[in-house]
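Reminder to self: tokens first, then the designed residues, so the page reads top to bottom the way the pipeline ran.
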């Protein structure tokens, strides 16, 4: 397979089906918004697709935007060439960012989907 192992043996039919499914997924994904193109590019009057916009907060991007905004206000700050900041997550409470956190997030966000 592709992830976590080296492809030492020939791929089986399942491997090729997964690759084909991934290729279809990527081909159908809009490069601008991430929606399937058959939804966001659809002009069929039978559907008359419209979109509502909802806030989707990324606290990592928010931190980068806040620092960039503060730096842009400075008259002396000059961004170093070739450097792009990336967020590194940490917990103020010291709790580990592990699978339990992931599970709790999805149970809170999508309680009807998660069932154990
Ligand atoms: Zn789109």
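Designed residues (116 positions):
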């Amino acid at each position: 397979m592709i992830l976590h192992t080296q492809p030492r043996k020939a791929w089986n039919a399942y491997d090729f089906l997964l690759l084909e499914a991934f290729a279809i997924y990527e081909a159908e994904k809009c490069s601008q918004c991430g929606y399937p193109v058959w939804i966001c590019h659809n002009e069929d009057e039978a559907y008359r697709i419209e979109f509502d916009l909802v806030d989707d907060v990324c606290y990592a991007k928010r931190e980068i935007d806040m620092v960039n905004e503060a730096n842009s206000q400075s008259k002396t700050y000059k961004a170093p060439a070739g450097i792009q900041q990336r967020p590194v997550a940490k917990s103020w409470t010291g709790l580990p960012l592990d699978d339990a956190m992931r599970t709790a997030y999805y149970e809170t966000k999508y309680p009807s989907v998660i069932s154990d």
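The pocket of zinc ion is lined by residues 30, 32-33, 35, 40 (CB under 6 Å).
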